[in-house]
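Hi all, posting the design record for the shared folder.

TITLE: backbone redesign
STEP: 1 of 1
STRUCTURE INPUT:
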C-alpha cells in the first residue's frame, strides 16, 4: 500500500490516471495510505520508549545537575554505597556539601574533585590560609579524611589531599566552584549574573511590567486576528503599490546611471587629450557598463511585471478566497497553538530522557587514579543517535500533522459547492488524518529528517574544524550546508503541497508528491507570484502587528516611573508580538498555498462543461482560459436548478390544493 503500490501509479500519463480523472470525486473514496510507513513509525516509537525505560532505570539525573566528586558521591545529597565501588570515601552523606571543588581548575579533567560547603571567596596563597579558611567557613578544601589540625603537614597537588596554592577566589556556577579569573566569556557571564546594576534592573523591569507584557501579548493576538481578517482587503492595494515602486525605482535608478555616465563622459572629453587621466577614462567606461546592465535588468523586470500582472491578480483573488475560508473556519488560526502544546510536551519528555541517558553509565574504579569514572555501555552510544533521530522525526511529524489538518479543512471548504453546507471542517480533516493518512505524514516527515541529519553531521564537522586553517575545507562544508538547507526548504514546500493533494484525492504520499510537483511546475509563474509578492504582503502584515503593539507599549511605558530601562519590556513585547503574528499569518500563507493547488487541480480535472463544472468561486473563474463558457454553463446550471425548484414547488402546491379540495368535498 502507499509507496509500495505498483509502479504504474507513479508514471505520468498512464491509463489509470485518465480513468481517475473521469471518475474524479474530491474528498471521497478514502482508504488507508502508506500503512507500512505508519507501522515503521510505531515500531520506531517502541524503540524510543525502550530507551526511555533503560535510561530511567540506569541513569541518575542528580549526578548531572548537582555534580559528583571523584569518588562517585553526588554533592548536596545523601549517597548510598555501591557494592562495586570499594572506596572508603564512597557512599558518604554530602547533604551539607552542595558545591564541586576542583584541586586544579585549569586542568579539571586530571584533578581531584571533592564536595565542599562553600567555594573560596578569596585568594588563598598558602596552606596556612587554607586552614584559616576551613576554620572560619567550616568548608575544608582538602580530602574528607584530612582534619584541620593535620592540614599543615598534608601534601599539596592537583591529586590531593590538599590543593596546590595559590587557590584563586571562585564563585558557584551550576554548583561548580569556578574562579573569578576564568576565561573572559565566563567572567563576563558571571559578572552579568551577579551585577545588580544591569542584570537585576533588567529582570526587575520585566518583572514589574509582567502584567503589561501579558496584556500586550493578548493585544498582539487581537491585532493579529484583525490583520488576518483585514489583509484580504488591503492585499491588492499593497501588491500593486509594491510593483509600482519596484518599476519606478528601476527606471529612476537606470536613468540616474545614464545621467551620471553622460555627465562624466562630458567632463572627460572637455579636458584636453594630453591632460586626461586613465582613471577618469576607466570610471566613464565603468558607468557605461553599469548603465547598460541596469537597462537590460530594467527591461527584463518590466517584461516580467507585465507578464506577471495576471498572476498577481490571481494572488489577490486567492487572498480574498483565503479570507472567505477563515469566515467558514475561524478556529483554523488556532492550529499553531495545539501544535505548540504538543511539541512542548514532547520536548519536555525528550529532554528528561536525554538527562537520564547522559547519566546511564556504570560506575567503575580507575586503577591508575583510584577514582570513580562512568563509562557508557556500548548500546548507549547508538541510543544517542536513535534519540536525536526521534527528536527530528517526531517534531517534523507534529508539524506535518498541522499542515495536513489545515490542508484538509481548506480543501473541504473549496470543494463544497454549497458553502452553507460546510460543517466542522477542522474536525473532519483531523478525523481523516487519524483514520487514513498518518502513514503519509510519517513518510513526508521522514524525508525531511533524511536531509536534516547530513546537515547536523556537517555542522558537527565544521565545529570540529573551526580552529583549522584549511579554508578550502571550510568553504566546501559551507557550500554543502547551504545546498542541503535549500533542498530541505524545497522539500518542505513540496511536502505541504503533497499533503494538499492527499487531502483532496486520498492518494499515497509518492503519488501525491508527483502530482503536486507537476502542478507546481506547470504553474511556475503563479507559484513565483505567491512566494514573492504574497509573502512580502504577509511580512508587512507581521511588521504591522509589531508596529501597532510596540507603539501602544511605548505610550504606556514611557511615563512609567517604576522602570529603569523601559526599552527592555518594549523589546520583549515586540519579540512576542512578531512570533504571535508569524504563527497566525503563517496559517494564512498555508491557506493561500492550499487554495492555489486546489485551483490548479480544479482546472486540470474540470473544464466547465455540464457534469464537469468547476468548484471554484466566480472570482477565480476569470483566470481560467475558457472562463466565459464556464460562467455560461454555471449560469445555465443555476437557472436549471431554480427552474426545477420552482417546478417542484408548483407540483407540491397543486397537490396541496387537490387534497384540500377533496377534503372540502367530503
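Okay, here is what came back for every position:
SEQUENCE:
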Amino acid at each position: 500500500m502507499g509507496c509500495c503500490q505498483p509502479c504504474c501509479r507513479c508514471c505520468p500519463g498512464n491509463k489509470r490516471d485518465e480513468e481517475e480523472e473521469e471518475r474524479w470525486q474530491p474528498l471521497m473514496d478514502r482508504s488507508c495510505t502508506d500503512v507500512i510507513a505508519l507501522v515503521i513509525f510505531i515500531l520506531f516509537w517502541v524503540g524510543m520508549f525502550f530507551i526511555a525505560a533503560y535510561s530511567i532505570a540506569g541513569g541518575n539525573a542528580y549526578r548531572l545537575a548537582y555534580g559528583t566528586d571523584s569518588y562517585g558521591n553526588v554533592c548536596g545529597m545523601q549517597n548510598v554505597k555501591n557494592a562495586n565501588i570499594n572506596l572508603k570515601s564512597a557512599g558518604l552523606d554530602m547533604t551539607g556539601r552542595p558545591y564541586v571543588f576542583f584541586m586544579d581548575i585549569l586542568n579539571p579533567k586530571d584533578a581531584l574533585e571533592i564536595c565542599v560547603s562553600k567555594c573560596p571567596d578569596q585568594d588563598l596563597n598558602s596552606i596556612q590560609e587554607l586552614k584559616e579558611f576551613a576554620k572560619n567557613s567550616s568548608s575544608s578544601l582538602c580530602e574528607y579524611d584530612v582534619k584541620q589540625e593535620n592540614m599543615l603537614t598534608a601534601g599539596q597537588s592537583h591529586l590531593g589531599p590538599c590543593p596546590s596554592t595559590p587557590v584563586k577566589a571562585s564563585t558557584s556556577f551550576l554548583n561548580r566552584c569556578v574562579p573569578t579569573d576564568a576565561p573572559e566569556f565566563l567572567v563576563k557571564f558571571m559578572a552579568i549574573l551577579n551585577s545588580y546594576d544591569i542584570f537585576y534592573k533588567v529582570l526587575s523591569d520585566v518583572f514589574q511590567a509582567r502584567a503589561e507584557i501579558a496584556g500586550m501579548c493578548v493585544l498582539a493576538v487581537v491585532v493579529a486576528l484583525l490583520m488576518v481578517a483585514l489583509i484580504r482587503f488591503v492585499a491588492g492595494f499593497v501588491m500593486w503599490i509594491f510593483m509600482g515602486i519596484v518599476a519606478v525605482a528601476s527606471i529612476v535608478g537606470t536613468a540616474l546611471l545614464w545621467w551620471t555616465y553622460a555627465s562624466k563622459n562630458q567632463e572627460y572629453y572637455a579636458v584636453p587629450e594630453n591632460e586626461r587621466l586613465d582613471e577618469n577614462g576607466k570610471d566613464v567606461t565603468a558607468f557605461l557598463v553599469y548603465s547598460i546592465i541596469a537597462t537590460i535588468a530594467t527591461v527584463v523586470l518590466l517584461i516580467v511585471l507585465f507578464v506577471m500582472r495576471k498572476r498577481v491578480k490571481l494572488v489577490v483573488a486567492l487572498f480574498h478566497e483565503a479570507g472567505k475560508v477563515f469566515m467558514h473556519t475561524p478556529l483554523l488560526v488556532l492550529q499553531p497553538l495545539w501544535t505548540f502544546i504538543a511539541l512542548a510536551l514532547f520536548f519536555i519528555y525528550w529532554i528528561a530522557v536525554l538527562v537520564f541517558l547522559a547519566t546511564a553509565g556504570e560506575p567503575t574504579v580507575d586503577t591508575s587514579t583510584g577514582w570513580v569514572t562512568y563509562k557508557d555501555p556500548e548500546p548507549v552510544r547508538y541510543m544517542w543517535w536513535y534519540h536525536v533521530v526521534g527528536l527530528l522525526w517526531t517534531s517534523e511529524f507534529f508539524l506535518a500533522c498541522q499542515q495536513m489538518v489545515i490542508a484538509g479543512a481548506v480543501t473541504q471548504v473549496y470543494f463544497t459547492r454549497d458553502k452553507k453546507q460546510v460543517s466542522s471542517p477542522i474536525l473532519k480533516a483531523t478525523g481523516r488524518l487519524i483514520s487514513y493518512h498518518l502513514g503519509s505524514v510519517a513518510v513526508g516527515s521522514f524525508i525531511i529528517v533524511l536531509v536534516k541529519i547530513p546537515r547536523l553531521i556537517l555542522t558537527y564537522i565544521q565545529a570540529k574544524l573551526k580552529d583549522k586553517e584549511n579554508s578550502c575545507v571550510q568553504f566546501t562544508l559551507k557550500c554543502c550546508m547551504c545546498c542541503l538547507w535549500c533542498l530541505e526548504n524545497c522539500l518542505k514546500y513540496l511536502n505541504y503541497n503533497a499533503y494538499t493533494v492527499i487531502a483532496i484525492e486520498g492518494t499515497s504520499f509518492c503519488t501525491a508528491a508527483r502530482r503536486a510537483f507537476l502542478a507546481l511546475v506547470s504553474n511556475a509563474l503563479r507559484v513565483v507570484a505567491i512566494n514573492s509578492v504574497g509573502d512580502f504582503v504577509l511580512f508587512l502584515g507581521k511588521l504591522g502587528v509589531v508596529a501597532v503593539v510596540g507603539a501602544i507599549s511605548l505610550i504606556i511605558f514611557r511615563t512609567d516611573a517604576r522602570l529603569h530601562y523601559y526599552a527592555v519590556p518594549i523589546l520583549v513585547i515586540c519579540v512576542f508580538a512578531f512570533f504571535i503574528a508569524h504563527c497566525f499569518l503563517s496559517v494564512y500563507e498555508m491557506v493561500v498555498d492550499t487554495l492555489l493547488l486546489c485551483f490548479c487541480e480544479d482546472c486540470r480535472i474540470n473544464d466547465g462543461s455540464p457534469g464537469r463544472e468547476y468548484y471554484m468561486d466566480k472570482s477565480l473563474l476569470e483566470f481560467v482560459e475558457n472562463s466565459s463558457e464556464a460562467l455560461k454553463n454555471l449560469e445555465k446550471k443555476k437557472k436549471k436548478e431554480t427552474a426545477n425548484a420552482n417546478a417542484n414547488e408548483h407540483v407540491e402546491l397543486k397537490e396541496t390544493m387537490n387534497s384540500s379540495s377533496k377534503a372540502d368535498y367530503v
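COMMENT: DSSP finds 17 helices and six strands in the chain.
Let me know if anyone wants the other runs.
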